[in-house]
Amino acid sequence: MEILSKLFGSNGKVKIIRLFLYNPEKVFSLEEVAKKAKVGKAEVRREINILVAGRFLKERRAWTKRGKVSSRKNHILSEDYPYLEALRLLFNSDFFSNRRLIANRFKKCGRLKLLVISGAFVQRLDGPADIVIVGDDLKRPVVDNVVKNIEAETGRELTYAVFDTSDWLYRFHSSDRFVRDLLEFDHEYLVNKIGF
């Protein structure tokens, strides 16, 4: 992400571009962009104005509950932007080259025994989960916060599951469908202290 933030001028702009690239049909308000990308509203407003001027984003007027056009502006990715595929390729290559750094983020979540990435991290969106965390004394709020930060940086909503080691092993030995689907699907171990 550091390379792209230097190239594009700010980390906030990179997060905003990612959010729109990976959610091409979704219309976002300024508040939604700020919340999902974890960027301040003033920076979001400034960067969105630049992206609209560069024709990367289009403005869409919001509707009130009474069916009238609101003064608030929402934004959506401009599908006719000429460099869209090149940007997707660039941002995807950065995303996949940095995925191994994910394990470092979960170090303070408890005693991690297994960390599996799948789904979006292996270029497949139809997997059972994107991240599976297995360990002992896991701090769920810390795990949730780490995942939200990864979502903000990657611009993607991630599905994840958290298991105690004993629960995971029970599910594994009893041929639990979720575990079986995950292990039959493309996946990668970032931490493997259980010995799978």
UniProtKB/TrEMBL annotation:
This is Transcriptional regulator. It comes from Candidatus Vogelbacteria bacterium RIFOXYB1_FULL_42_16. The lineage of its organism: Bacteria, Candidatus Vogeliibacteriota.
